[in-house]
Design a protein that fits this description.
This protein is mainly alpha-helical and about 240 residues long. The chain has 11 helices and 4 strands. It has one domain. Strands 1-2 form a two-stranded antiparallel sheet. The longest helix has 23 residues.
């Protein structure tokens, strides 16, 4: 775990927690956007839910325990992308050629449409629209205690700087002999730097910028330079990103 401990040393000891006014404004923004999104896209979400049901036997949603604010556990909502009999089995990470993934699931994952039901988690208060991605408990343990304290000081999000950079994370793990070790030693330290950066810049205005960048990336495949998501990239070059 040495590399993760080295990253922990980069935490600013003078870092202050987010202001209450910032958190209140962020929560109000989350509720308005998430509720509006659920209402506007309800027919589209219903169509995806029907497609999931017709594509393979099993539930519409995939529920998995994740670690949230202050270490509280919650169950995340995603459209199911795996065969029902394989859900919850195998590695906690998924590579792009994983034979557990259904035909429709591959499309939903590539387009990130499987993530939309997390708007439910946002409305419930488990998550925010923007913030560090919630990890499963078995992976969260690889962070140092200082890293965990920082990451879990805010609600996890649907998107953030690290999500933009590691949009093809499954493909990056394909070539790894040990995907878990590659994720722990190579990807998690880079993600942490971006989590720390987001926390230092947290505001509703910045959340809007990240959300717009996410939408543009999904629609065009291009990451706008204006969002500055390549800052603190340290080591991303080996993954073919910039």
């Amino acid at each position: 775990m040495q590399r993760n401990q080295d990253i922990a040393a980069e935490i600013d000891p003078e870092r202050r927690p987010p202001r209450g006014s910032t958190l209140a404004a962020k929560r109000a923004f989350d509720i308005v956007v998430a509720t509006g999104g659920m209402l506007v896209f309800a027919p589209f979400l219903a169509a995806i839910a029907l497609a999931v049901k017709l594509d393979s036997p099993g539930p519409i949603f995939f529920r998995q325990e994740r670690v949230g604010l202050g270490g509280a556990r919650f169950r995340i909502f995603k459209f199911r992308t795996m065969k029902s009999s394989d859900c919850g089995k195998g590695l906690p990470l998924t590579v792009s050629n994983d034979n557990r993934i259904t035909r429709l699931g591959a499309i939903l994952r590539a387009s990130k449409l499987d993530e939309i039901p997390q708007l439910i988690n946002v409305i419930k208060g488990d998550m925010s629209l923007v913030g560090p991605r919630p990890e499963v408990p078995s992976l969260m343990q690889y962070y140092s205690s200082d890293q965990r304290d920082l990451i879990l000081s805010v609600k996890p999000g649907i998107t953030d700087y690290a999500s933009l950079l590691f949009r093809n994370e499954n493909e990056l793990l394909d070539a790894a002999k040990d995907p878990i070790e590659a994720y722990r030693s190579e990807i998690m330290p880079v993600k942490f730097r971006h989590y720390a950066r987001y926390l230092s810049e947290m505001s509703v205005r910045n959340d809007i910028r990240i959300i717009l960048a996410t939408c543009l990336l999904l629609l065009t495949g291009r990451l706008p330079a204006s969002v500055g998501a390549a800052k603190a990239e340290g080591g991303l070059a080996k993954f073919g990103t910039s």
